[in-house]
Amino acid sequence: MTEQAPPEAIVEEPAAPPRPWAEVTPEQFRMLRLAPLPADRASGPRPLRFVQFGMAERHDPALSLLRLDIQLPGQRVRSEQNRLDVWVDHQLRQVSLGSDAGLQLEPVNRGLGRFVMAHAAAWLQRHWPHYTLQGAALSSKEALQPAGLDRRDHALRTQGLNVEYADVQRLKGQYQPIAVSQLLSTWNVEKVQVVEVLAASEMLQMAEQQLQEMELKLHGQQERIGKFSREESGLRFTIACLIAFAVFQAALLIWIATHR
After folding, report:
1. I need a labelling partner for 92 at 20 to 30 A (CA). Which of 47, 155, 197, 221 fits?
2. What range does the domain containing 39 cover?
3. Considering only CA atoms, which of 14, 85, 25 is closest in space to residue 52?
């Protein structure tokens, strides 16, 4: 009886070690003004909004991290939203952006995508312009909404990335590797403006002055309304007295006429 050779053992590739700095939170903050825009059919109303832009950096000999974060006052988002991680591998001299889920920002269609990408590009060009940004596959979630897909591709291309698709339906998209020095660090300043501390204090001061002026106007209007209300009460009393006097005169005339 011949012995069967044992099946070949399946060699599992070791899992990549987790990246450091998972718990890093933003440490530097700036206020952003999202300009009011006409309502969009896909994304809805786009009123004036203020959001907080935060960033944090970490470095060691092997890796560097830039974490960019958008916080919305009075609104909570999922942990994977409104965050862009920029990883720099110094051994390979390569840069990777975000996660497989892509950059997910709220509110949508307000220019935040280009703003965040522009700041990432400027940071990389200050430190490692000779590195290469790795290419990556694009999420297919945006393909369900052609308008969102067009916005994403436009945002990537305006930052210097070359977006390509392997199918007509634009489900399998990717952007190609590019030198960091070729990235563009511009955004639409008509949609997103950085509000400095002094400018923010001036805005608050103006808002306070306008509020005081409105309170004075409201107080004046209330006084006028009170005056008109008192005058109305006086007129109502006068009219009631005149009506009573007229009724009395009519009754008196009727009595005189009937008793002659």
Report:
1. 155
2. 28-198
3. 25
Rounded to an integer, what distance in angstroms lies between the CA atom of residue 218 and that of residue 51? 31
Residue 14 confidence (pLDDT) above 80: no
Distance CA 154, CA 140 (A): 16
Average pLDDT, the chain: 86
Are the C-beta atoms of 165 and 150 separated by less than 8 Å? no
97 phi/psi in degrees, rounded to 5: -115, 135
pLDDT digits (tens, 9 = 90+) for 103-140: 888 998 999 999 999 999 999 999 999 999 999 988 87
What is the tally of structural domains in the chain? 2
Flag whether 12 is in a domain.
no
Angle at which helices 146-158 and 112-127 pack, to 10 degrees? 30
Dihedral over alpha carbons 123, 127, 129, 135 (to 10 degrees): -60
pTM above 0.70, yes or no: yes
Q: Which tokens is 16 given? A: 């990549």
Which of 149, 169, 198 delimits the end of a domain? 198
175 touches 135 (CB < 8 A)? yes
Q: How many residues does the chain have?
A: 260
